[in-house]
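ok trying this again, last paste got cut off
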Amino acid sequence: MHRQTVLVVDDDPAILEFYRKVFRDDPGSELDILGEKPQVRRRDLVCRTFDAPSKLLSWYAQAVDEGKRCPLCVLDVRMPEMDGVEVARRIREIDPQIEVVLCSAYSDRSVAQMRSLLERRFYFVRKPFAPDEFMLLVDSLCVSWQRNLAQKAGEEKLRSLVDSMSDGVVYYSASGVAEDCNPAALRILKRVREEVVGHHIDKIRPLALRPDGSPYPKTERPLARTLERGELVADDIMGIPSPDGRITWIESSSAPIFAAGHARPVGAVATYSDITRHIELEREIVTQKKRLTDIIDGTGVGIWEWVVPTGEFFVNEQWARIVGYTLEEISPMSIDKWVQMCHPDDRQAAKSGLMNHFWGDGSHYENETRVCHKDGGWIWVLIRGRVVERSLDGSPVRVCGTRTDITDRKKLEERLRRSSGKLEAVRRRDRELVHILSEVPLDDVQRRYVETLSDPGLESSASDDSLNGAEL
């Protein structure tokens, strides 16, 4: 058991011996100077006696330097070296938490004078006293001291915790005056302590903005709502303009403090988080997203994303518009629904190409396929994509890509193919005519015409003319 030491100072050796006996485990009946039967004392209390105040002050100053503290000091009021009131004042300069009991049969000062000089609570006991009554007081004071010590330690831990937080914390009175704050609050509010503690919230933050940039009325801000109506307000966003024109965006919460017998809050705790960088990043993302959307809309490209493990399939409005639908009409989309939209003759080729890409054949996937339009017809689309995320075993997790309508290109290719067939027929006819005419007598004009038909350069020119005349 940890034993607590009570300090005793008296210039009378007989009185000091009396105190030593009082603090023993079994004081005996001879200690009962008023003739009362003693009770069993607390065994965790011992006393250390001094016959002069200077010895006490010197010893206790060293003890405190070594981290040792005592709960109580018992002082005689009238001593030749220094009276008890002065000793009490000086020992509290060494340890402000120590309790003081002044004992005397007679004092030159009144209790009111002693209270005024000590500027703190103390206890006065007149001699003679019953040992048990005295020990009851000592025991109560030591228990109170221990409780206060534990409370102070808890408060210091809480203070250290609050001071180490990255979020700002400010305690406000019921009138809106800041009573205390942690370092993070000063950093976030861009103030020094003297500009916060002791000042009204309207002076600390005279201006505030809503997220849309409009003024934030004082009566609608979190702290005002908490103090006026007792509301618990969480995660409210506001901007605090700085003198240099910059805006610090904070996320503010406030909670009311109630006391027994009070219907209205007696104070409030406000917390602040600096989310300026978060707001800036959000706005940058919105800007980039709009820029990307404008580019995609301008190119007419459909965007898709496939979550392979779940089969989820996400598309944009243009992807749906290519096949004649709105995004709402085609939602929810899935990979199975996409496959069903493909032409039956093209599904196997699309699947094979995709599997080859999944397992490392090529940096991207590309396929031209026919898909069913809302009007019942078939259109050609070019599908491009690649795996953008894989699991630890290399399996595809996410695949992203584009879809482009290439129907017009395919129609043009078909027309060119048909025109090429017609051109080849003309060339074949020319070659047959040259062969026939080569066996027939010709005059000079006829011979030059036949030569033009067999000249490759002229044939190329004729080919261009045939293309120009083809139905495109």
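PB: full thing came through this time. The chain has a mean pLDDT of 84.
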